[in-house]
Amino acid sequence: MLKQKSGGGESWARVCDKCRAAACAVYCRADSAYLCAGCDARVHAANHLASRHERVRVCEECERAPAALLCKADAASLCTACDADIHSANPLARRHQRVPVLPFSGCLPGPPSRACSR
Ligand SMILES: [Zn+2]
Ligand SMILES: [Zn+2]
Ligand SMILES: [Zn+2]
Ligand SMILES: [Zn+2]
User: The B box-type domain covers which part of the protein (predicted)?
Assistant: First the structure.
């Protein structure tokens, strides 16, 4: 789900540091790099050491910062800035339950895929 905003590249999602062709999906702390799903899989499947890198999802809202919180009501991973933004918007949103986003290693979590052996 890419945000197609025309004019002013400022709000454009951060691009993958590796291929610079796709929007980033995860942030790898060990590499200090934002990677798209494809590059993430390639880079971190390359060797055993790389597969242990801890990564976090990128904020679904701004797609420019690592997500820090997962909102259960919205089923969205948000960075601290977007979390504050969205959840201060109205009293109902303020009641949303959020849990810290945990880093993961190995395969990208999400819909089960056959590419993932674990
Ligand atoms: Zn990439
Ligand atoms: Zn890495
Ligand atoms: Zn954000
Ligand atoms: Zn929420």
Answer: 11-58, 54-101
